[in-house]
């Protein structure tokens, strides 16, 4: 499990592609790999991956075809910056909301507004997922737990403070970029339960 509080930014060092599998070598800040063991879970842009090997501050991960098809990982290339979070431990503060690291879908950035000391990003998700997105609800974008702003049909925005921009890759965001989305599990459960009872929220 993860908390959605991004612990830092790492850089893709190498990508090796084979049929149905991609292997990533990702360079982390040296103080963030202490105590890492083979088999540990790390959130890479919101996707839970398993450490397969360590070489100093380089950690290695494999992603299967199903993961590549559901996420933005297939487009990663050397030099790309990614958000990361190591798995939560019992007793850790939950500053965001609980995440599984299982990406539900991707979204496109369709607009960016940068007033002084603020940044607002607008995203568009596939219509089928819009039913789970509510103003002031939780959502995870590239592994970061964020509060939803305005919602219009299958578009929503988020407002980012300077600290979030500093600690994540969102400062580099560009219109047209794809991001990983994990829907809040509690919201999904409530919406699906109401749907089974006949109180469905139609997809926009």
Task: List strands and helices in order, with pairings.
Blueprint: E1 8-18, E2 21-27, E3 41-44, E4 47-55, E5 58-64, H1 65-70, E6 81-86, E7 105-113, E8 119-124, E9 138-141, E10 144-147, E11 151-152, E12 155-160, H2 162-167, E13 178-183, H3 185-196
Q: Could you characterize what this model shows?
A:
With 204 residues, this protein is mainly beta. The protein has 2 domains: 8-86, Elongation Factor Tu (Ef-tu), domain 3; 105-196, Elongation Factor Tu (Ef-tu), domain 3 (Beta Barrel). Helix content is 12%, strand content 40%. The chain has helices at 65-70, 162-167, 185-196; strands at 8-18, 21-27, 41-44, 47-55, 58-64, 81-86, 105-113, 119-124, 138-141, 144-147, 151-152, 155-160, 178-183. It has a 7-stranded antiparallel β-sheet with strand order 10-9-13-7-8-12-11. The protein has a 6-stranded antiparallel β-barrel with strand order 1-2-5-4-3-6. The two termini are 31 Å apart. The mean pLDDT is 93. It comes from Marinobacter confluentis. GO terms for molecular function: riboflavin synthase activity. This is Riboflavin synthase. InterPro entries: ATP_synth_asu-like_sf (IPR023366), Lumazine-bd (IPR001783), Lumazine-bd_dom (IPR026017), Riboflavin_synthase-like_b-brl (IPR017938).
């Amino acid at each position: 499990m993860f908390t959605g509080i991004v612990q830092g930014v790492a850089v893709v060092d190498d990508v090796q592609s084979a049929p149905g599998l991609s292997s990533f070598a990702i360079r982390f800040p040296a103080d963030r790999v202490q105590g890492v063991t083979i088999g540990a879970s790390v959130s890479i842009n919101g996707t839970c991956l398993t450490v397969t090997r360590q070489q100093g501050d380089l950690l290695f991960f494999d992603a299967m075809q199903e993961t590549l098809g559901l996420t933005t990982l297939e487009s990663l290339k050397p030099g790309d910056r990614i958000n990361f979070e190591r798995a939560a431990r019992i007793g850790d503060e939950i500053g965001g909301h609980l995440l599984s690291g299982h990406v539900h879908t991707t979204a496109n950035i369709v607009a960016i507004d940068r007033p002084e000391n603020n940044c607002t990003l607008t995203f568009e998700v596939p219509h089928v997922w819009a039913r789970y997105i509510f103003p002031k609800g939780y959502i995870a974008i590239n592994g970061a737990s964020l509060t939803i702003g305005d919602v219009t049909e299958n578009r929503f925005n988020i407002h980012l403070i300077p600290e979030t921009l500093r600690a994540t890759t969102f400062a580099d965001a560009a219109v047209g970029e794809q991001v990983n989305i994990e829907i809040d599990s509690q919201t999904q459960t409530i919406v699906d339960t109401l749907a089974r009872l006949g109180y469905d929220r139609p997809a926009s």
